[in-house]
Amino acid sequence: MARKLIVPDGIPNDPGGQPDSRRGKALELGFFGWNIRGGMTMSKATLRNNDRERDYWKWSNSRNLIEQAEYIGYDYQVPFARWLGSGGDIDFNGASLDFLTTAAATAPITENMGVFSTCHITFRFHPLHIAKIGASIDHISNGRWGLNIVTGYQAQEMAAFGMEHIDHDVAYDMAEEFTVLLKHLWTEPEPFDFEGKYYQSYGAVVKPGPTRSPRPILMNAGMSDRGVLFGARNVDWLFTVGLTVPELRAKVDRAHSLAESFGRSIRAATMCWVVAEATDELAAEKFAELQSEIDREALLGYARQLGGMEMYKDRDVDALSQDPYAGLGKEFYEGYSHGFMSPQLVGSPETIAEKLRELNQEGGAESILTCFLDPQKGLHAMQDDIFPILEKMGLRG
Ligand SMILES: Cc1cc2nc3c(=O)[nH]c(=O)nc-3n(C[C@H](O)[C@H](O)[C@H](O)COP(=O)(O)O)c2cc1C
């Protein structure tokens, strides 16, 4: 019998439907950036507390963090996937555990939390690589694996793979085709053929298929219009970031209505950077210390790498490097160095719980990724002080 031939036609397509991932909590929480040097904190102050604030990614530390996150009830973990760091005295993000090993390693030491991988699809992976490896991790984790699909915005990382820079929107066209083939690889029971513009596959079949039905959860965090369009058409969880709660709400509402217009649904999510101390005053002191020691070279390195992102492509980092804010403006300089422009949750447990409530109830984020200055201290604060408040608010019951 002739094999089934699939030719992508640009129409959103979810063979078998979309997976349901709701856990019955108003607010789901993810543990982010635990696998990488410095996480989302670009301050030389972290060097004084290296094991706690910078090199917690080493497996001897990070496996304890993952076990702790699971124990206290975190819903999922997401690594931050980078191939090159940004330099500076802190060697920002210059060492990390990779996106697949982290999921495979965290699967057997957890039982409940979702374990995600982040794949830069443009870096010459074929969907069959990711479909096969992902189905295996889904099998090992008993259906808890998921994939964050990113296109890769760094010319430097593309060069490291021996590639010319790929145009931003073309990368999203590739991502659409990649995702369509991935979904078919996870749901077609028999070998099939696929003929796309960017990807072809003849006679592939993935066995065992994924454990979660109909397939693993897919997420995306594209910030540009094209990125959000990709997310609404293809994935199940869409991450977006707003500096204010109304800005987040507007983006979340837009993502939902876009997905609906394609006959799909997405779950909206966001991320934040957390510095938890006993009181607001202590947290403000810690924050001031971090800000007074921003690693300018690391930040400039990162800003150069962001040149591939739509919204930062016109910034001339080098021409303005004498400027106190390196030509990036105060908001960017301070916002990127601590939390990559996501909300900075700095304060007492009460303050942090209230900000999480706002992002969830008013901002519309069903799910929030938290990245800590000091993940060990942060997880303890979550367990002892913040979760009890969130429970009283009825958000984690
Ligand atoms: C929650 C979250 C997680 C992300 N994780 C990664 C990551 O691990 N690796 C990466 O290269 N980009 C990551 N990004 C960046 C985005 O996926 C995306 O590439 C970037 O925002 C540019 O999107 P755009 O090209 O649509 O503007 C993340 C963004 C967010 C908000």
From TrEMBL:
One of its GO terms (molecular function) is oxidoreductase activity, acting on paired donors, with incorporation or reduction of molecular oxygen. The keyword Flavoprotein applies. Pfam families: Bac_luciferase. It comes from the Bacteria. Gene3D superfamilies: Luciferase-like domain. The keyword Oxidoreductase applies. InterPro entries: Luciferase-like_dom, Luciferase-like_sf, SsuD_RutA_monooxygenase. Residues 1-22 are annotated as: Disordered. Keywords: Flavoprotein, FMN, Monooxygenase, Oxidoreductase, Plasmid. Residues 58-365 form the Luciferase-like domain. This is Possible flavin-dependent oxidoreductase.
